Amino acid sequence: MTMPLDAAKKTAPAINGKAYTVVDHSYDVVVVGAGGAGLRATFGMAEKGLKTACISKVFPTRSHTVSAQGGMSAALGNMGADDWRWHMYDTVKGSDWLGDQDAIEYMVREAIPAVIELEHYGVPFSRTPEGKIYQRPFGGMTTKFGEGIAQRTCAAADRTGHAILHTLYQQSLKHHAEFFIEYFAIDLIMDEAGQCRGVVAWNLDDGTIHRFRAKMTVLATGGFGRTYFTCTSAHTCTGDGNAMVLRAGLPLEDMEFIQFHPTGIYGAGCLITEGVRGEGGYVTNSNGERFMERYAPSAKDLASRDVVSRSMTIEIREGRGCGPEKDHIHLHLEHLDPKVIHERLPGIAETARIFSGVDVTREPIPVLPTCHYNMGGIPTNHKGEAVTLRNGDPDALVPGLMAIGEAACVSVHGANRLGSNSLLDIVVFGRAAALRCAEIVRPEESHAPLPKDAGDKALARLDRFRHAKGGTPTAALRLRMQRAMQSNCTVFRTGEVLEEGKKKLAECRSGLGDIGVTDRSMIWNSDLVETLEFDNLLAQAVVTMHSAANRTESRGAHAREDYPERDDANWLKHTIVWLAEDGKPRIDYRPVHLRPLSNDVQSFPPKKRVY
Question: Would you please indicate which residues are annotated as catalytic (active-site) residues?
Answer without folding.
Answer: 305
